[in-house]
Amino acid sequence: MGKRIIVRRRGKGGVYGSPGHQHRGDIRHIPSASCTGTVEELFHARGRTTPLARVVFEDRGRTAEALVIAPDSVQVGQQVRVGSDAPVEVGNTLPVGRIPVGVQVHNVEARPGDGGKFARAGGVGATITSQGRLTVVQLPSGAFKALSPLCRATVGFTAGGGRKEKPFAKAGKKFWALRSTAVIFPNVKGLSKNPIDHPHGGGGHPHVGRPSTVGRGSWPGQKVGRLSPQRKKRKR
Q1: pLDDT for 154-166, tens place per residue?
Q2: What is the DSSP letter of 153?
Q3: What is the CB neighbour count within 10 angstroms for residue 165?
């Protein structure tokens, strides 16, 4: 009995899915407009390249606990503040419209209140480049993004920047490191696989053996190899 090839099983979960039950959930800015918190713990989170910080916030006599992306140089017991009146210091979260030009930030919101979308990986940071009707931020990729001044961000760049400097001692370490991010390791080209594992597999020597282009209207599991070229002439 046949089975689905590997490229068409991706996204199904199981061995090709990320172990979400071991992750600590989505990390977002707290919805409170203004509060003060204390860093209680710093720890590693599976599936993330940056450490997380457990912060206990106090707002109007009430206490709440939240997980945030740990900025570089943050310490246990450090006080962090959230709000438009918070000082521009490492670990504080405030609207990008209140942050001076040239300051590095991370976990930047794309829209006010979405919890943070940009500059969340380990050792990265975005830079405030100009202020006006919109706030322009340079992302870690070098691209410039115009945002609403009400979008929030945390001052400083993220921790965990030295992770690439330590090499993997053996293949097994890299396998388990990528396993938590749903990346299959090692990555083998399709020509080297068996016919049941990839459309390009099989044959006595490495060649595809059939047209490798697929239609642009194909469903995602069929898009293996090169997409068919676009039509250059009009239909008569």
Answers
A1: 999 999 998 889 8
A2: E
A3: 7
Neighbours of 12 (CB within 10 A): 11
What pLDDT digit, counting tens, does each position of 83-119 carry?
A: 999 999 999 999 999 999 999 999 999 999 999 999 9
- What distance in Å separates the CA atoms of residue 46 and residue 58, rounded to the nearest whole number? 28
CATH number 3.40.50.10840 is the correct assignment for the domain at 20-163: no
According to DSSP, the residues that pair with 104 across neighbouring strands are 127
CB contact at 8 A, 158 and 71: yes
Amino acid 12: pLDDT: 59
Contact between 196 and 7 under an 8 Å Cβ cutoff? The reply is no
What is the pLDDT at residue 10? 66
Question: Where in the chain does DSSP place strands (E)?
Answer: 35-43, 52-59, 62-69, 79-82, 93-95, 104-106, 126-130, 135-138, 144-147, 152-155, 213-214, 226-227
Please tell me the pTM assigned to this model: 0.78
Question: Are 122 and 113 within 8 A, CB to CB?
Answer: no
Measuring CA to CA, how many Å separate 130 from each of 23, 95, 147?
36, 14, 11
